[in-house]
TrEMBL record:
This is 4-phosphopantetheinyl transferase family protein. Residues 2-87 form the 4'-phosphopantetheinyl transferase domain. Pfam families: ACPS (PF01648). InterPro entries: 4-PPantetheinyl_Trfase_dom, 4-PPantetheinyl_Trfase_dom_sf. It comes from Pedobacter psychrodurus. Keywords: Transferase. GO terms for molecular function: holo-[acyl-carrier-protein] synthase activity; magnesium ion binding.
């Protein structure tokens, strides 16, 4: 099973005020909040952790059938942040492995139930208007879209 999340960073800056009172407390654990407040770029860290949670949740939801996105129950750990960012997300007794890339205008995370499978995941990322096609016919393993971006994984 695959998970996938993309964040249009330009849109996130205008649509979300994560600095407002109690926002972080509702979504992130104490350890995750520490990562955010100590990061060189707190904005990127917020959206990195968010995309890790989203990509893992997509697998968890398909696996369990539970449709209850409670972001604070998904616990992120970053293991490496040199080049690509590798991490894990734990929810209940499940661990999901993630790999993320941060670019100037978007951030993308993929997730898998096995860490070795991350290297085998194929990705296609499109920026509007270049994603106005019937992408479902390509049978992606997971779809994510935000703002101008569409991310498909296989």
């Amino acid at each position: 099973m695959l998970g996938n999340d993309i964040v249009d960073l330009d849109l996130a800056k205008t649509q979300s005020n994560w600095r407002r009172k109690n926002y972080l407390n509702k979504i992130f654990t104490a350890d995750e909040q520490l990562l955010i407040t100590s990061a060189k770029n707190p904005d990127d860290m917020v959206w990195l952790l968010w995309s890790m949670k989203e990509s893992a949740y997509k697998i968890y939801n398909r696996k369990t059938g539970i449709r209850n996105f409670a972001p604070k129950s998904l616990n992120c750990v970053i293991h490496s942040d040199t080049g690509q960012i590798h991490g894990t997300v734990n929810v209940d007794d499940n661990t999901y492995f993630t790999k993320s890339d941060i670019y100037t205008t978007y951030l993308h995370t993929i997730a898998s139930v096995e860490s070795v499978k991350l290297k085998d995941i194929s990705m296609a990322i499109y920026k509007s208007p270049n994603h106005l096609f019937d992408y479902k016919s390509t049978n992606p393993g997971c779809v994510s879209h935000h703002g101008q971006y569409l991310a498909l994984v296989y």
